[in-house]
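Handoff note, outgoing to incoming analyst
You'll be picking up this chain. Sequence as last confirmed:
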Amino acid sequence: MRIVVLDDYQDVARSFGPFDRLDASVEVRNEHIDDPDALVGALRGADVVVAMRERTPFGAPEFARLPDLRLLVTTGMANASIDLTAAAAHGVTVCGTGGGGGGSRKSSATAELTWALIFALLRHVPEEDRALRDGRWQTTVGTELGGLTLGVAGLGRLGSQVARIGQAFGMDVVAWSRHLTVDRAASVGVRAVSKDELLAASDVLTVHLKLSDRTRGLFGAADLARMKPTSILVNTSRGPIVEEAALVAALRAGALAGAGLDVYDREPLPADSPLRGAPRTVLTPHLGYVTRQTYAAWFTEIVENIEAWAAGTPVRVLGRA
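Most recent structure output, in case you need it:
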């Protein structure tokens, strides 16, 4: 059996997962393969492929060109980049992992990173770090959280975690999503508002929505223009929910005080992305889920999935061949 693990950027899959239990050839790819032909070439002959998050699309064209593929394992219990119908049509079983928050372990990793970005922006941590190393002392003036309004777009598990932390700092917390009810918001102790009110009131706007056709480009130029020039935007959800060009333009025009981003339209972020030169930004390379605890859970469950499938009793199945 040949197994290929994709997108292990930090080269940690083998250290976090017991792959040595498997009677198989395990190949780990540390670089992202963006070109479809190169991807097929790398995966040709593999019986099992492990996909990290939604980085690599697997649709009918990919499955048709990988006739040996029989098991596709993805981190998480949902992956919008995998066509489950096409997988079933080509005899490929798709399994997921629940250890990063979708199962019994309710991770706070992304919520924690969200607050790391908020703190970095409001207290100018990257700027002061650079200034201190250059021999300068106290070059900025920070902003306290108490009394500010935290706007949460999407009040699911992650949004609720972020909202509760904001409340602990004495923030006024409001929330919006298309289907958010007053009762659901009240259960978290926050106020449900309209999208326009969310934009106008938020000193800190944080995005926690799933990417779909309805949320792609949800926050565009007109929406960002409704925000206060003293407000900041944080996105640890999915890049395309916020229109990248509109965000860069707003930052360059001084229409926003800053943006903290962990997710992007294209990942890894291209070297020529305008975001790299955008002012008042803190950028991290999709670290929301990247913790020792999450990786230990994910890669252990990946090995369990492969063992169960090989034994003829697949577990955590998302699509059954």
